[in-house]
């Protein structure tokens, strides 16, 4: 049986994807069209298809393109499946050492937070029990709020629609409008909190690891025993600074 000729449309789409992923700067629609020698309408159709399919995301004031959730998922299916997580693991260890609290990375999967990596602390007398693979609700998780607040365009609303808003504690966010207000605070401050919202025993801080477009598909944070705090988790300024600094350095490691 003779080999079938290659699909030119698919080949062009893959070339566009490769161009965006390997660019040395954030790419706008115009940049992609010029780089690929395509007219704007054709470039837009290809980019829009890749965006809808989850391979690219578009956001930020410049409306630039970056790797989408599917790219992260594909990375986990390759022999080097955990490369991104492994590259960030030393930063997690450092964050745990600096804060003496449990540090973790989280991603979104099917409307919930999945912890991709966790580093436990050996210095704290008592600490939060977490492990890689644990799942959390977005609306009562610091990692979830960080990811929802900086989700690629078009994904935030779908993510909010998928939440049950089950009241885990008396402090759990009660509904969509309240979560929207909380996410706006997260966007302004670049930091998210869980103040005993998922469990009365736990408080958390998290920050998004943003791509050049300002979107995030992975976040980093810490968890602590709520009763061990002398002030609300939102007032732990030293920890907030450490988490934000680590997220910024993490972005440079993987993007």
Tags for this model:
255 residues, alpha+beta, Arc Repressor Mutant, subunit A, 2 domains, 6-stranded antiparallel β-sheet, elongated
Structural class given helices, strands, pairing? Answer: alpha+beta
Q: What order do the helices and strands follow?
A: HHHEEHHEEEHHHEEEH
CATH architecture of the largest domain: 2-Layer Sandwich
Please give the oligomerization state of what you see.
single chain
What is the end-to-end distance? 43 Å
Q: What about the largest sheet? A: 6 strands, antiparallel
**Total domains:** 2
The unreliable regions are: none
Helices, by number, come to: 9
Return the CATH class of the largest domain: Alpha Beta
Overall mean pLDDT stands at 86
Number of strands: 8
Radius of gyration: 20 Å
Explain what the structure shows.
With 255 residues, the protein is α+β, with helices and mostly antiparallel strands. The protein has 2 domains: 8-74, Arc Repressor Mutant, subunit A (Orthogonal Bundle); 83-254, Beta-Lactamase, CATH 3.30.450.40. It contains 9 helices and 8 strands. It has helices at 8-21, 29-36, 40-52, 69-75, 83-99, 142-149, 155-161, 176-189, 237-254; strands at residues 56-59, 64-67, 102-109, 112-119, 135-137, 192-195, 202-210, 216-225. The strands form 2 sheets. A 6-stranded antiparallel sheet has the order 5-4-3-8-7-6, sandwiched between helices. The protein has a two-stranded antiparallel ribbon with strand order 1-2. The model has no long low-confidence stretch (mean pLDDT 86).
Topology:
Elements: H1 8-21, H2 29-36, H3 40-52, E1 56-59, E2 64-67, H4 69-75, H5 83-99, E3 102-109, E4 112-119, E5 135-137, H6 142-149, H7 155-161, H8 176-189, E6 192-195, E7 202-210, E8 216-225, H9 237-254
Helix pairs in contact: 1-3, 2-3, 5-9, 6-8
């Amino acid at each position: 049986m003779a080999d079938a000729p290659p699909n030119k449309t698919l080949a062009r789409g893959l070339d566009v994807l490769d161009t965006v992923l390997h660019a040395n700067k954030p790419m706008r629609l115009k940049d992609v069209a010029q780089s690929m020698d395509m007219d704007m309408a054709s470039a837009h159709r290809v980019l829009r298809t890749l965006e809808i399919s989850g391979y690219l995301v578009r956001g930020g004031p410049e409306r630039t393109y970056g790797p989408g959730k599917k790219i992260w998922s594909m990375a986990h299916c390759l022999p080097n499946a955990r490369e991104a997580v492994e590259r960030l693991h030393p930063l997690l260890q450092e964050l745990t050492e600096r804060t003496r609290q449990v540090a973790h990375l989280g991603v979104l999967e099917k409307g919930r937070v999945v912890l991709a990596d966790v580093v436990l602390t050996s210095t704290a007398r008592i600490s939060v029990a977490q492990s890689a693979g644990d799942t959390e609700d977005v609306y009562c998780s610091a990692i979830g709020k960080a990811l929802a607040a900086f989700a690629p365009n078009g994904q935030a609303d779908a993510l909010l629609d998928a939440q049950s808003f089950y009241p885990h504690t008396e402090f759990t966010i009660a509904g969509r409008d309240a979560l929207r207000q909380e996410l706006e605070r997260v966007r302004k401050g670049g930091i998210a909190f869980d103040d005993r919202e998922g469990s009365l025993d736990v408080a958390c801080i998290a920050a998004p690891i943003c791509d050049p477009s300002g979107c995030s598909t992975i976040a980093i944070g810490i968890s602590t025993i709520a009763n061990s705090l002398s002030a609300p988790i939102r007032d732990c300024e030293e920890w907030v600074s450490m988490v934000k600094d680590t997220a910024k350095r993490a972005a440079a490691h993987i993007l």
